Amino acid sequence: MSTLHTVNKSPFERNALCTCFGHITAGDAVLMIEDGVIGARKGATTAAMVQAALQKGKVYALSSDLAARGIKPADVIDGIQLVDYGGFVDLVTQHGRTVSWL
Q1: Which domains does the chain have, with CATH numbers?
Q2: CA distances from 40 to 13, 93, 96 (A)
Q3: Which of 18, 19, 56, 83 has the most CB atoms around it within 10 Å of its CB?
Q4: Torsion of CA 90, 94, 95, 96, to 10 degrees
Q5: 3-state class of 85 per DSSP?
Q6: Cα separation of 69 and 71, whole Å?
Q7: Considering just the CA atoms, what is the radius of gyration of the chain in Å?
Q8: Alpha-carbon gap, residue 56 to 73, rounded angstroms
Q9: CB within 8 A of 91, min separation 6: which ones?
Q10: How many whole angstroms separate alpha carbon 102 and alpha carbon 13?
Q11: What is the pLDDT along the chain (102 residues), one digit of tens a residue?
């Protein structure tokens, strides 16, 4: 059963993103939401960690949360897929369970 992992805290505030990436397995997906999208920015200290996670599973970021924080799509790490709220719902329904990392 695959898992959708959601991370809503900035990687500079908490270690939820790092911990989450340590628990993903093949078929899992990670969705960065709210302040978690800060970890999706190119050049961030989290970039290498995100690149490694992309080798294990899919990584998404909520586009409206990126926009709310002034992060343009061109500033997002290559390989991260942007989704809207409908895409968020689709991810929930595509995975057997959802885990929120706080």
Answers
A1: 3-101 (3.40.1260.10)
A2: 14, 23, 25
A3: 83
A4: 120
A5: helix
A6: 6
A7: 12
A8: 22
A9: 4, 29, 31, 60, 83
A10: 11
A11: 899 999 999 999 999 999 999 999 989 999 999 999 999 999 989 999 999 999 988 999 999 999 999 999 999 999 999 999 999 999 999 999 999 998
Strands 97-101 and 81-83: unpaired
Q: Which two tokens stand for residue 75?
A: 């500033």
pLDDT at 102: 86
Cα 60 to Cα 81: distance, rounded to the nearest angstrom: 5
Please say whether the beta carbons of 94 and 6 come within 8 A.
no
Structure tokens belonging to residue 37: 């999208």
**CA 7/CA 17 separation, integer angstroms:** 6
